[in-house]
Amino acid sequence: LKEFLIRVKRVLEKGEFAPSGAHSEKIQFAGRVIDWTSRSITAVSGKTEYLPLRDYQLLKLLFEKAPHVVSRDEILKTLWPEEEGTHHSRTIDNVIVRLRQALSDQDGSIIRSVRSVGYQWIGPLENSD
């Protein structure tokens, strides 16, 4: 059973499935498109960037928890549960920097930093086709 669960977890981590609870596969806003199925962000310019798994997982977590702030501890426990204690908040900061670059969010108008707490999705909350 343990081996089976490990294998299922690995398949899920590869991102071969659409996100749970999403009735639509895309979010469109301000000329950007987030495609949950392909784990990509397409910018106004038409450039598509495919997100690494952890970046995608953090983006999805922030979106699903919106409008609530997600603490650094919750992010660490959700994204790196098997490696608890080995990752630091700086790891999260690096993922946020990459997400903001992919979203062209230099001013923090989509992902907000909440000092000494964590991060918050303040972009659109609606999925659209």
Care to describe what's here?
The protein has 129 residues and is of the alpha+beta class. The chain has helices spanning 2-13, 53-65, 72-79, 89-103, and strands at 26-29, 32-35, 40-42, 48-50, 70-71, 111-114, 118-121. Strands 1-2-3-4 form a four-stranded antiparallel sheet, with no helix packed on it. It has a three-stranded antiparallel sheet with strand order 5-7-6. A hairpin with a 2-residue loop joins strand 1 and strand 2 (32-35). The chain is globular and about 45 Å long. Mean pLDDT is 81; it is low at 16-23.
Order of helices and strands: HEEEEHEHHEE
Number of strands: 7
The general outline is: globular
Low-confidence segments: 16-23
Q: Looking at the chains present, what oligomeric state does this protein adopt?
A: single chain
Largest β sheet strand count, sense and barrel closure: 4 strands, antiparallel
Question: Which percent range describes the beta-strand content?
Answer: 15-25%
Question: What strand order characterises the main sheet?
Answer: 1-2-3-4
Give the helix/strand class: alpha+beta
- Count of DSSP H/I helices: 4
Q: How are the elements arranged and paired?
A:
Elements: H1 2-13, E1 26-29, E2 32-35, E3 40-42, E4 48-50, H2 53-65, E5 70-71, H3 72-79, H4 89-103, E6 111-114, E7 118-121
Antiparallel strand pairs: 1-2, 2-3, 3-4, 5-7, 6-7
Concise account of the structure shown:
The chain is of the alpha+beta class and 129 residues long. The chain has four helices and seven strands. The protein has helices at 2-13, 53-65, 72-79, 89-103; strands at 26-29, 32-35, 40-42, 48-50, 70-71, 111-114, 118-121.
